[in-house]
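Hello again, I could really use a second opinion on something today. I've been puzzling over a protein and I'd love to understand its fold better. I'm sending you its amino acid sequence along with the backbone structure tokens. It would help a lot if you went through both lines with me. I've dropped the whole record in just underneath, so have a look.
***
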Amino acid sequence: MRLKDARKTKNGQTLVDLKHTLRKTDIADSKWLAGLLRHGLLKGSFIPPEKVRERRELSRLRKKYTESLADYKRPMNWV
């Protein structure tokens, strides 16, 4: 399975710029994107290595905990 950036095509046009002959549905869009992929018109998305993904998740979790701690401390200052 390959992940693709659906906003970009090889020739610089976006999905919004291109006209569909089919009705605008998720199924029609997925078929259209599959055709573009078969013809090599889509550029692949960057997926970072697992270690980088784990570190990003840890930093997001740390930020979340830090913000929630500040939320608990803030009302105490009002007393």
User: Anything to note?
Assistant: Residues 50-78 form the longest helix (29 residues). The two ends are 56 Å apart (CA to CA). The chain is about 55% helix and 0% strand.
